[in-house]
Design brief:
There is one protein chain. The protein has two helices and 27 strands. It is mainly β. The chain has a ten-stranded mixed sheet, covered by helices on one side. A nine-stranded parallel sheet has the order 1-4-7-10-13-16-19-22-25. Strands 2-5-8-11-14-17-20-23 form an eight-stranded parallel sheet, with no helix packed on it. The longest helix is centred in the last third of the chain and has 13 residues, at 234-246. The model has no long low-confidence stretch (mean pLDDT 92).
Length: 321
C-alpha cells in the first residue's frame, strides 16, 4: 500500500495466515493500541511478523502487543524516523527488529520470553537503505528472553538467532543503549557482531559496511543467571561453547572479534556505568592464526567516544482522534 498520515487504532488481529499487519511506502503511519497474537502454543507455521511497517517514513508504534510471531513481533525495516514505545512483545522468536533503518527510538517497552529481545542490524543485500544508523534503546525491560527458537527455517538468519540473547547488534552504525533493565538473558545479555558472523554473502562494492561501529552502552542494569536456556538452538550452543573455551565467568557482553582491517578501537565501543559487567571477545577473525578468544577489561572502553543522539522528531505525527 501507499499513502500518508494513516493511523491504525484499537483492534486485534488473531492467527494471521502470514503477517498480521503490514504497511509499505507510507509517510506517516501510526499503530496505536493494537494487539496481534497467534493463539495457543507457538508454532513454526505461525506468521512471520506481527506489526510490519517497511519502506516507510515517520513510523510510530505506541501501546501495542505482539505475541507468537515466527520471526519478529514488531519489525520495522528499511524505514526512517521511527518511534516504538510503550509496547509489549513476548513469545516471539525476535521481540523487536530494527533492520536497515535510519533514526529509531525504542523506549518504555517490555521484551520478555522471546528467543531474542531486540535486534538492530543491517543486512547486506538491501538496496533502499544500505547502511542503517542512529538507533536509541532506552528505558526498556529486556528480561528472560530464553524462549525456544521456533523459526520455520533453522538455517535462516532468524533461525540462527541465539536463544537467550537480550540485545543483538549486527553490522550497524551509531547505537546508544541506556537506562534499560537487561536481566536473565542467559546466553548473552548483549551480543555484538559483524555481518561475516552470519555467514551470508554481500557485495562490498555496493558501499555496504559489514562492521559494527559507534556503540555506546551506558547507565543500564545488566545481569544474567549462571544457567543457560533450557532449549538452546545451535547458535546458542555455539556461543556457549566459545564462552566455555574462554574458561572464565559467563560474560554479559560478547563480541565476535571481526573488526576487518581495523581494531575494536576503530569501531568506537563505549561501556560505562552498567555495573560489574564482563566483556568477552571471541576473536573469531584471528582464530585462523591460532589465537584464542579473551576476556577484555571493560575499562578499556570507558573513554569519551560517546554517540549521544537527539530524539527522533516525527515530521508528520499521526494519532487516533
Amino acid at each position: 500500500s501507499e499513502g500518508s498520515d494513516i493511523s491504525l487504532c484499537g483492534f486485534s488481529v488473531l492467527n494471521g495466515v502470514s503477517d498480521a499487519i503490514k504497511t509499505q511506502n507510507i509517510d506517516g503511519i501510526g499503530f496505536y493500541d493494537l494487539a496481534v497474537d497467534w493463539e495457543g502454543d507457538v508454532l513454526t507455521n505461525n506468521g512471520n511478523y506481527g506489526l510490519y511497517p517497511v519502506l516507510c517514513n515517520n513510523v510510530e508504534i505506541d501501546g501495542c502487543y505482539a505475541r507468537g510471531a515466527a520471526d519478529a513481533g514488531i519489525y520495522v525495516g528499511q524505514s526512517t524516523n521511527i518511534v516504538v514505545k510503550n509496547s509489549t512483545v513476548t513469545q516471539n522468536v525476535a521481540g523487536i527488529e530494527i533492520e536497515n533503518c535510519i533514526s529509531a527510538d525504542v523506549y518504555n517497552c517490555t521484551m520478555e520470553d522471546n528467543s531474542g529481545g531486540i535486534l538492530v542490524y543491517d543486512l547486506g543485500n538491501i538496496t533502499s537503505i544500505r547502511n542503517g544508523s542512529m538507533c536509541r534503546i532506552f528505558n526498556n525491560s529486556i528480561v528472560n528472553n530464553n524462549h525456544k527458537n521456533y523459526s520455520p527455517d533453522p538455517n535462516g538468519l532468524i533461525g540462527r538467532l541465539p536463544v537467550g540473547t537480550g540485545i543483538i547488534l549486527l553490522a550497524t552504525d551509531s547505537v546508544e543503549i541506556f537506562d534499560n533493565t537487561i536481566a536473565s538473558n542467559n546466553t548473552a545479555p548483549i551480543a555484538m557482531a559483524s555481518y561475516e558472523f552470519t555467514g551470508e554473502n554481500f557485495d562490498p562494492s555496493t558501499g555496504y559496511n559489514p562492521r559494527l561501529r559507534y556503540v555506546d552502552v551506558h547507565d543500564n542494569v545488566i545481569t544474567r543467571d549462571d544457567t543457560y536456556p533450557e532449549e538452546p538452538n545451535e547458535a546458542a550452543q555455539q556461543v556457549a561453547f566459545l564462552i566455555f573455551v574462554l574458561g572464565g565467568p559467563n560474560p554479559h557482553i560478547v563480541y565476535d572479534g571481526i573488526p576487518g582491517l581495523g581494531t575494536m578501537a576503530d569501531q568506537h565501543f563505549r561501556f560505562v556505568n552498567n555495573g560489574n559487567v564482563i566483556f568477552a571477545n571471541f576473536n573469531l577473525q584471528m582464530n585462523d592464526m591460532g589465537q584464542a578468544g579473551e576476556y577484555v577489561d571493560i575499562a578499556t572502553f570507558a573513554g569519551n567516544q560517546t554517540t549521544t543522539m537527539d530524539g527522533v522528531n516525527l515530521q508528520t505525527p499521526t494519532g487516533c482522534k
